[in-house]
Amino acid sequence: MTTPPRTRPTPAGIGVASIRFALAALTVAAVVATFLDAAERGPVNPFNFFGFFTIQSNILITVVWVWAAVRILQGRRASAGRTIVRATVTTFIVIVGVVYVLLLAPLGAEGGVPVGWANTVMHYVTPIAGFVDWMLASDRVRLALRRLGWVLIYPTVWVSVVLVRGATDGWVPYPFLNPDTGYASVFFYVGMIVVAFVAFGSLIFALSRVPTAVRVLRE
What we know:
Distance between the termini: 20 Å
Order of helices and strands: HHHHHHH
Oligomer: single chain
Helix content: 55-70%
Number of strands: 0
C-alpha cells in the first residue's frame, strides 16, 4: 500500500489545526484542574481517577486533536486507519456528553466533576466540539459499517475492568454500575452501553459519507 502524497494545508486547515490545539490545551487544563482538586482533598488513587470513562475519553480526544492537527500542518492526507481512530474516539466523547446529560447531570454534584468549569469542558465542550469537528473538517475518508467493531473494543475492555473491580474492591466510576444496586440493574445498563456505542458509532461512521464544509488540505 502506497502512502498518499503530501500536499499543503489550506488557510481554513490552519485554522482548524489551531482550534484543535486550543481545544486540546483546554481539555488538558480541565483534567489537570480536576486531578489537583482531588489531590487537595486527600491522596489520589490513579487507578480510580483515570478509571472514569469521562477522563479517559477526554484524554483520548486530546491526543487525537493534536495528532490530527499535526497531520494537517504536515500536509498529510487522511487514511482509512486514521479516520477509524478519529471516528472511534469521536464516538466515545459524544457518548460521554449524552450519558452525562441523561444519567449523571440529574444526580447533581455526585454525577459530575467538582470543578465547575472543568465539568463543563469535559461533559459539554469536548463532546460538542468533537462532533462538530467530525462533521465539518475534511481530513477523513468514507468508512464502511463493517469496520464498526473497532468502536466496541475499548469500551468492552473498560466495562470488563469496571465489573471486575466492582465485584472485588467495590470501586465503580458511576452509580449506575454499582453492584449494590443489583446485577440485574448493572447488566441492564451494560446492555444500554453496548446499544449506545453501536448506535452512535453507526451514526458517526455514516456521517463520514456526508460532504464536509471545511477543506483542510489543498488538492
